[in-house]
Amino acid sequence: MELKLHVHGRGNAWPVPLGETHPFYNRNDCRDLSNAAYSLTASEQGSMRADVLIDAGHGTIQSLISGRNRIPDCICLTHGHMDHTLSVDWVVQSFWRHHEKKRLYPVYATASVYRFMLKSYPHLEKLIEFRELIPGVTRPLEGSNPFNLTAYPVYHGQGAAGSSMLLFETVGKKLLFTGDLLSPLLRNGDYERLMNADLVVADANNRYPWPRTNHWSFAGGPESPMERDSTLRSFIETLSWEDLTAPHELPLQEESFINYFSQLKKEWDLSTQPFTVMEFLRKIDPKLLVPVHYSGAEDSRYHREKILDGAGLRSWIEHTMKSEGLLSEILLPLPGQVIPL
Ligand SMILES: [Zn+2]
Ligand SMILES: [Zn+2]
What we know:
Helix content is 28%, strand content 22%. By secondary structure, the protein is an alpha/beta fold. One zinc ion (ZN) binds next to loops.
């Protein structure tokens, strides 16, 4: 089976704000103004067995149409923010019209992410067949799809209900999409399962901590990549278990949710809980790292560190990881890039 990752976009919510420029993103290439989104495809002897869309923000449709120009089998959402959902309507409406307004389109997400998305696009409720993801519970994607999907909860701030990282597994491959996050909410056994993942597509919004963005940073601080700087330390000191779990709406959830979080609570330790990409990499040591969603705005504003261009970010990441003995292969993706897995 041939697996491929198709990169529709690699951008954060607003890669180039109007009236500005950004050293990382080419404002003259509209593909580079797209938000981070991908298709995962599996084909066998030339025929497509699976075509899964993972998040769908600005520019996803343009990339899909100018690429393979077919309707993906389903959409899997990490969370409900606009830069991950703006293209959902176009995909769903294409399917609805293609099937003479008789078939509903499959969307996989946690219940909270789905409710959040419907607040932005209430008309889609009648056009979508919602397939619920429950934290830590693996479900096969339906149809001829060879992937098993598991959602793991993450913390991406109080305003991001139900946010999750998504793990796709198929014969001998583990492919993880972190979505946006400030910290993953994983049990010890989950780290074991993620160990040596073949691919981790990771939120790399900032190089250095500024937790009020609700994104983790790549390193712990400009001084030392594995040490948490004072901004991050004082933020973590104020974080409570209730803060971290409130976006998962625990009182509303059913038993399997409660079981996941009660196990997590038993093992909870803020000193080993990852709050940076580096801390996460040290725990799971993936084979290939694909950093996305880069902004760098807070590095410049609060740490007086440069926003980097593509070559600069790549060599900084490589150098930072190597200095701590982290040896994953690094691939900074381009929009439209197809990566064989
Ligand atoms: Zn985002
Ligand atoms: Zn987000």
